[in-house]
Amino acid sequence: MSTNILYLMIIILIGYSNAQNNGDKLWILLDDPSVFTCRGVNNKFQIDQKDVSITNSRGRQVHYLEAPGEYVLNFRNIRVDQPLPNLSGQTNGILQVPIISVGQVLNWDFPYQLIPEKQVFGGYKCDKASAPVTDGGKQYCRYCDLCVTSEQVDQVLNSPRHKYLPNEGSPNEQPFDRVCHQIDARSYTMQRTISLPDKKTLEDEANAKFSGVGGQLKKKLAGGKGKLQMETQVISSKQAPLDRQSAYSQNPSCRCCVPGVNDLSCKMNFINRGCNKDACDAQYSQDCIRGNSQKVGCYTVQFNYIVTDKPEEVKAFLQKHNYQDEYNDFGGGGGGGSSNNGRGNSNSNRGGQNSRSGGGGNHQNGGGNNSQGDQQRCISRIRDERFKRFCNVKWQQNFCCQQCGGC
């Protein structure tokens, strides 16, 4: 479910961005992320914010995502207090975009519920694996069986068009549906490698997913910046959830929705062949959880974001927050995101992209007035092997001279 939520987050942000350049790169800048528990839920599993991270392929935590690019979603220590059988889940997402902002004095945000997605002509819509429910006065998309949903989501994310989960099935990234049937009281570690396609592919998927949002409303949301808040609840039951086809078969109003049903009354019904799929899915989501069930976890993820296709905005973001844990092609200042993780960047190296990888930064191979001999003497004095390799492959005078103590 965590992989699906991350995918949904990315698609939401792309769908409401104002990126208009013709390049194939896109950046999602992540600011002030937080994870907190929900009121009124006694969590039976614990996740600390420090144990959740997104890293690049070298294990370095990132401050932005670049598409195309490859990243790892890490859960280092999920502590389960009791066995959790028969898991269901539900989630909602709120996007807040600034309408009026005057310094620190006046900030007016426009909140819009995206999960479930509000429809132009009323009602709510979820993805194919879930259906809308109302719980505690709030709208959610409910996934009746997380084991089944996990398998379906993995299949969708590894479609022929793009393989979002390139390492699924490896020893460190086993599919969740293989373990979700028997979650015992112990600690778990999980990671998922996420491969992002190029800007055009992401935009196509976002436009297809949010086609029901009206044009005027989408203009309000398409500012390229805002705050995303996603709440996820996990429910455990003593009985396995009712499967969808059984629920359809037991409901006279929905039996025509059963695939392959051989019923003359269904065939003779010329309105959707007697199947109101949306109504039946909504009824199923209300009835699918059986037996003595309880909410065993509820967490909310919240962060500010900027979606852009302008390299200068990425550079300004890194400089504003003084991120210096990794230098890259945006010219000093350091980036937590790695520009050389993209699938198309076959010429990248461990320290950063070379001049052919099109990172949009300030590529310098000359090094100003420093001779080749001066450069090599400086490189030999750099203690950090990563930075030494970087400067040896692509000399950047200000950065490399700083690392070696002065040229």
Give an account of the 3D structure.
The chain has helices spanning 2-15, 146-157, 199-209, 215-221, 244-250, 264-268, 277-287, 311-321, 372-381, 385-393, 397-404, and strands spanning 26-37, 45-46, 52-55, 64-67, 69-80, 87-102, 106-115, 117-118, 124-125, 131-135, 138-143, 187-196, 225-237, 293-308. Residues 102-106 and 331-368 have low confidence and may be disordered. The longest helix is centred in the first third of the chain and has 14 residues, at 2-15. It is 26% helix and 28% strand. The termini are far apart. The strands form 3 sheets. Strands 1, 4, 6, 7, 10, 11, 13 and 14 form an 8-stranded antiparallel sheet that branches. Strands 2, 3, 5 and 12 form a 4-stranded antiparallel sheet that branches. A two-stranded antiparallel sheet has the order 8-9. It is of the alpha+beta class and 407 residues long. It has 3 domains: 2-239 and 293-307, no CATH class; 244-287, no CATH class; 364-407, no CATH class. Helix 1 packs across helix 3 (199-209), helix 9 packs antiparallel against helix 10 and helix 9 (372-381) packs across helix 11.
